[in-house]
Amino acid sequence: MPVAAAETVGTPVINFAIFAFFVLVTLVIAVSAGGKNKSTTDYYAGGRAFTGWQNGIAIGGDYLSAASFLGIAGIIALAGYDGFLYSIGFLVGWLLVLLLVSEPLRNTGRYTMADVIDLRMRAVPVRTAAAISTLTVSLFYLLAQMAGAGALVSLLLGVSGTAGQDIVVAVVGLLMIFYVLVGGMKGTTWVQIVKASILAAGAAMTTVWVLSRSGFSLPALLRHAAASSPAGAAVLGPGLEYGANTVSKFDFISLAVALVLGTAGLPHVLMRLYTVPNAREARRSVIWTIWVVGLFYLCTLVLGFGAMWLVGGRQIEAAPGGGDSAVPLLAYHLGGTILLGIVAAVAFATILAVVAGLTITASACFAHDVYASVLRKGDADPVAEVRVARITAVVIGIVAVIGGICAKGIDVAFLVGLAFAVAASANLPSILYSLFWPRFTQRGALWSIYGGLISSVGLIIFSPVLSGQARAAGAAGASLITDRHVDFAFFPLNNPGIVSIPLAFFLGWLGTVTDRHPADAVRFARMQVRALTGVGAERSTRS
Amino acid sequence: MALFQPARGSAGGTGAVRPAQPTQPAKPTQPAHGRASGYEAVRASRDFWTIRRRLGSFIVPACAFLLGWYFLFVIIAVFAPGFMRVSVFGDVNVGLCFGVLQFASTFAIAAGYRRWAQRRLDPLTDRLRRRLEGGRY
After folding, report:
1. Yes or no, beta carbons of B93 and A236 under 8 Å apart
2. In B, which residues are within 8 Å of A287 by CB distance?
């Protein structure tokens, strides 16, 4: 990315005004919705009083992060079909949430993913392990969002210097801390709903606008896009981004495994399932989410190829943020300053809302799993627990700001792909084994969680992500460490999923079969009866 | 023996549906955290077995299909990109159709599961839950 070419598009004043308006609206929503956050159930789960469709749209809001809106459209705009492959993985993973996880999880848990494992084995080490992996995944995801915020705002507000971008990232962090402290889960959920609705409307409108340019013909749009791309018709088929050699092919397969299995292990998605009154509403939520997310990704296909055609790959690559700027530039091309401002504000609201959702997840995990269950042995005062959650939210906000400043310039969709790999490795095996395997034991849980976590994070550290590919900073595939003398990468793939996910499943099995203490059959029976029938499930507080 | 109270003495038999015991009111919202062996009896019961079998008969094939179908798509895209570029009509190629079909199958499985669960699963789980909450097991 040529840093010198950091010119802004549109009028910064108008962009800023639209930004400010969005921020103000969401703040009002957060304050008015979250006024009464007294109990832990209110703070963590919005009183479990949201309906299926409300929560479904809110999950969509949580899920359609900047990586989706900006990242996927950007990859399509630059590499064509390969970006489409990304979006399919992001969508298909939801079926696993729907079929395997959503209903039993809602029936058996209270606030966090660790609650479910806890029903199988009441053990402090397991809860600690689950909390560590939840916090790690949330921080990875947070990092991606914060990194995206800097790039986006530099494009739109004319903040081109490093210091200016850092200030923007810090402001994002402050706003999000405010949402979470004041709004709790209820306020955050309403922010998600509003944001997701605006995002969907904005994407649909821009999609129709693009299609109108090509006479409402998708083949014509594809033809124009291919004609304006230097790669020509190759953009309409797979392989531009990942087809270069065998390593990059396996890298893509690894990413595909992580995307499809990661969704069901994302803590901030799982936690949202607790905000509805019962399992049936949880099912309904996920079905709503599938529709919202799926239709949205179909729009990004049009947006991406539209940007390729109307804006052109060269201009997108030259813009600050690279591919992430494809949609804002397309908006500017179509509707001038106003549409650009709206799209940019939506994207900014997206980052804020997703970051807030992640923060509340991480803070709930720390307060509920670590403070109340591990440190206080399940005997914590609810008021103190909520206070701990709030303090944690502030700490996480600060950590995210620092991380976001360090991770600036890395491709957002790529970072999210890593978060999915860690989620699928560290969380998914123990969730699925807990729910479906009677023999699963404590040792199996510990081995799969720590094994998945350490192998996925470890392989990322020793992959080209961190060192060994010292290209121009911000270029696709460049390492975080830009000093070309530092090279400790020995794992060839950027995404660890293809190794770490099977390894974590294997370790869960191995730990279980070598465990001398057999699983507690009564606990499994209780878990399964509760999971399938909903007996004894946590109730909504609004009744 | 009521389900949600700690088992006293032996866990009793398994399977058979028991009549309600009015002398021991169940507390459905506060299950005992101790050893509630009643759960094992419920798990072994015929009703529960039916629910499990029925759920499995949908979930297992559905997951096998969706994962197989998705990875088939990924493998073809990676190792046979030429096939994906074969034109179906005009600029619309096999890859695009394949991708859109992935979306369609996702929507179809989600909608199908919802419909199936409402008709075939929810009546069973509702009945069993009501019985459990009424203390009849």
Report:
1. yes
2. 110-111, 113-114
